[in-house]
Amino acid sequence: MNEFLKRKDIEISLKRYGIDALGAMAQGLFCSLLIGTIINTFGQQFHIAALTTPVAVVSGVEYTVGGLASAMSGPAMAVAIGYALKCPPLVLFSLITVGFSANALGGAGGPLAVLFIAILASEIGKAVSKETKVDILVTPLVTIGVGVALSALIAPGLGKAAMWLGNVIMWATDLQPFLMGILVSVIVGIALTLPISSAAICAALGLTGLAGGAAVAGCCAQMIGFAVISFKENGIGGFISQGIGTSMLQMGNIVKNPKVWIAPIVASAITGPIATCVFHLQMNGAAVSSGMGTCGFVGQIGVYTGWVADVASGAKAAITSMDWIGLVLISFILPAIISLIVHKIVEKQGWVKPGDLKL
Questions:
Q1: 3-state helix, strand, coil in the chain (%, to 5)
Q2: Residue 315 and which of 123, 216, 303, 337 are 20 to 30 A apart at CA?
Q3: Is residue 357 over pLDDT 90?
Q4: What is the pLDDT of residue 116?
Q5: What's the rounded Cα separation, in Å, for the pair 56 and 33?
Q6: Which of 111, 103, 91, 102 is nearest to 10 (CA)?
């Protein structure tokens, strides 16, 4: 069995499923749901007819260019997961159907359903791939059959579970914005820096509202925090790569000296409740944006698209100057200041030395 799994490149491990597959799923979301939302918002704000006019009608539903991209989130996630799991072509292409079915049947918790079902369908598809002389028939039939059957059996349950957990977190944040502001900000921020996908987690749980705002704060604290405190060691290149790229670049240094993580974590613990209690910062855009922070400014774009949607629906009267002040302070200014202050204290204690943050 071990020889068979090795030959098929089926690796049952936390890294393969919890890091590689989860991270790839987030990329699939970015290239579908997230980019579709951005295209729609861009078209609406700048009154670009080509982006706001429906280009297709499917079963009576009109789709814009951005709408088509968003509608493909299930297939995009599944194919991305299959790519991370190194699926052969026939398995990879069959995952398009699997992703669509899992996401559709999973409802609001579709991303979580896609993650589990795409992994199972991928590995079973890989197991049968090229084992028969009619591979072109067997592999797609098995991969799609397993994926659709699992979607029917467990996707609705997984979707409801994810939605329930996400709703509990959001309800708790509304009820206790200070405490939950700290917890959500710190936990999601840490997930962003770890080699897992905070964006995929937020998408799977559907974290929006105040909880989404706290998640944005935590992610920004990690990215801006590390970018600022490591500026002496890494210069402008390191500042940009961490500040609008990913704080995950510091994982090697964190493993060597975990105390370098103190300043960004403290910053997230402070900015989280400020976001929820002072500025009432909410993420009412795509949930995946909650776990992005300042990466490509996707977190900020997500907050803005939420404002636009709220204004359009009447839930919000207008986008105010206080909204912008809160977003800028939480995303950039406060994480930088707090991280620098805390890092200076940490350095004075001798816990962190020059060079510990060198990339």
A1: 80, 0, 20
A2: 216
A3: yes
A4: 94
A5: 17
A6: 91
pTM of the model: 0.79
Residue 156 clears pLDDT 90, i.e. is over it: yes
Q: Enumerate the domain spans of the chain.
A: 2-159, 176-348
Question: Residue 37 corresponds to which tokens in the numbers above?
Answer: 């939302």
pLDDT band for position 14 (cuts 50, 70, 90) = confident
CA dihedral 54, 56, 57, 61 (to 10 degrees): -60
Tokens of 29: 């979301």
Taking every pair of C-alpha atoms in the chain, what is the biggest distance, in angstroms?
Answer: 68
Q: What does the alpha-carbon distance between residue 93 and residue 174 come to, in Å, rounded to a whole number?
A: 42
Residue 81's closest CA among 138, 132, 125? 125
Nearest Cα to Cα of residue 13 among 119, 93, 111: 119
**Residue 122 contacts residue 85 (beta carbons within 8 Å):** yes
Percent of the residues in the chain that have a pLDDT greater than 70, as a whole number: 100
The number of residues making up the chain comes to 359
Give the pLDDT confidence of 192-239 residue by residue, as tens digits.
898 777 888 888 888 999 999 999 999 999 999 999 999 999 999 999
pLDDT of residue 274: 97
At residue 246, the 3 state secondary structure works out as: coil
Exposed e or buried b per residue across 6-39, where buried means at least 16 C-beta atoms within 10 angstroms of its C-beta:
eebebeeeeebbebbbbbbbbbbbbbbbbbbbbb
Q: 65 to each of 99, 303, 320, how far by Cα in Å?
A: 20, 21, 29
Q: Under a CB-based contact definition with an 8 Å cutoff, are residues 87 and 21 in contact? A: no
For residue 115, the model assigns a pLDDT of 92
As a dihedral over the C-alpha atoms of residue 4, residue 6, residue 8, residue 14, rounded to 10 degrees, the angle is: 120
Q: What angle do CA 293, 102, 108 make, to 5 degrees?
A: 50
Contacts of 160 (CB under 8 A, 6+ apart): 107, 109
3-class state of residue 63 by DSSP: strand
Q: Alpha-carbon distance 226 to 299, whole Å?
A: 17
DSSP 354: T
Q: Residue range 172-179: average pLDDT?
A: 94
